[in-house]
Design a protein that fits this description.
Layout lengths: L2 H15 L25 H15 L6 H7 L3 H11 L4
Length: 88
């Protein structure tokens, strides 16, 4: 799995998992901060993203500090998934 081909998939999953009705996946920039930026995501959303990683890619995050390093933006998520996915 290549990082560049994974990014649009991640964006679609973010929109679906977080039920972001007013955001299109293609509107999310690869380097746009997921938290504290225009997306307006909060701590509940971060839990949903952790669930996304586990369900879709077999990646289990139990350490909040590790999660903060992964869920920075789509670039970081894609890189982590490519390096660590069990089902990709």
């Amino acid at each position: 799995m290549e990082i560049e081909s994974l990014k649009p998939v991640i964006k679609t999953q973010i929109v679906q998992y977080l039920n972001l009705l007013d955001i299109n996946p293609e509107d999310i920039k690869d380097d746009e901060p997921l938290f504290g930026g225009d997306l307006g995501l909060d701590s509940i959303d971060s839990l949903e993203l952790v669930v996304l990683l586990e369900r879709e890619y077999g990646i289990k995050i139990t350490n909040p500090a590790e999660g903060r390093k992964i869920l920075i933006d789509v670039n970081h998520m894609a890189q982590y998934i490519v390096s660590n996915a069990k089902t990709a």
